[in-house]
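New to this. Help decode the following:
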Amino acid sequence: MTRDNHSVQIIILNGAPRSGKSSIARAVQEHFEGPWINLGVDSYNAMTPKRYLPGIGLRPGGERPDLEELVPFLYAALYESIAIHASLGLNVIADLGHHDSYSQPLGILGDCARRLEDFPVLFVGVRCPIETIMQRRDIVQEGRETLYLSATEDVPIPEPVQRWQDEVHRPGIYDLEVDTSVLTPLECAEAIRHQLDLGIPEPSAFERIAGAR
């Protein structure tokens, strides 16, 4: 059974790795009414063949031009899937790390925004100071080192981490921004709920991004 496109809700969380996006997504799934499907980077990369990883998680800097040709198609497929879920009446939250710092600009965010033109989308910037991100990267759980780059005495902030911080919030057009260094995941989710209750600003961030050529 389908619903009117405007009776469902889509939330796109955008931020650097370890900024707290996935924790916010879980809080939304646990505390918001109705089914919320997470179609974020982790779930999508779990379906991506290993030889094409990090897939849509390819970090800024143009390090893997051999993968860049595929990345726009992966994002297009993901956003088309978001549209299909929403058209069937399923709310969607997606935690992603959009940037355009490839070996050449790919314009992926604008293309993605245009694929959701028929739906209301709340675009949320998930901010976090780089010092806090480094602390989270340095955490060791159950004796197993994290997969994320951590600080060393000689390199307190690895260059790839700094590139994420510099590039992920460009152009920085959002409907709402949250700072996970001062808000818990549930508090961020409540801020998102409050914005949804107020209504998505007009024109929305995605509408402005879609219109920028």
Remarks:
- The chain is about 40% helix and 10% strand.
- The beta strands are 10-14, 36-38, 91-96, 121-127, 176-179.
- Confidence is low (pLDDT under 50) at residues 140-149.
